[in-house]
Specification:
By secondary structure, this protein is mainly β. Helices cover about 0% and strands about 50% of the residues. It is built from no helices and 11 strands. It has strands at about 5, 10, 20-25, 35-40, 45-50, 60, 70-75, 80-85, 90-100, 115, 120-125.
Length: about 130
């Protein structure tokens, strides 16, 4: 069964860094935009970073811009999210998603994404 697999979550102190990775398992990422979403308990899933097919365009939510960097390695079929200067409010479950289009969609609607991973948990705590 083709799927997205996230990894790299964990517990980190405020100000620390984590690098999340999204692997396409029998699912090609190369020709689609890929996004990372974050969900906090009791709240809707929110888009935080997106990268277009080919990597020429990226998009970030205001809350993470300047701290997070999304990148892709099509040879490895992965999309990573480097998270620096982590804050308490970055705590949540992080999901990667593959869109049905090559560009980062506008508006950032979860309904457009055809494939989702199971999520990886990030906890920022002192």
């Amino acid at each position: 069964q083709s799927q997205l697999v996230e990894s790299g979550g964990g517990l980190v102190q405020p100000g620390g860094s984590l690098r999340l990775s999204c692997l396409g398992d029998r699912l090609t990422l190369k020709f689609r935009s890929i996004a990372w979403f974050r969900q906090v308990s009791g709240k809707e899933r929110e888009g935080i970073a997106c990268i277009s097919a080919g990597g020429g365009s990226t998009r970030y939510a205001d809350a993470v811009r300047g701290r997070f960097t999304i990148s892709r390695d099509d040879a490895k079929n992965t999309v990573d999210l480097q998270m620096n200067s982590l804050k308490l409010e970055d705590t949540g479950t992080y999901f990667c998603a593959r869109d049905v289009i090559s560009a980062c969609r506008e508006p950032w609607d979860t309904a457009g994404y055809a494939n989702w991973g199971q999520g990886t948990r990030v906890a920022v705590s002192s």
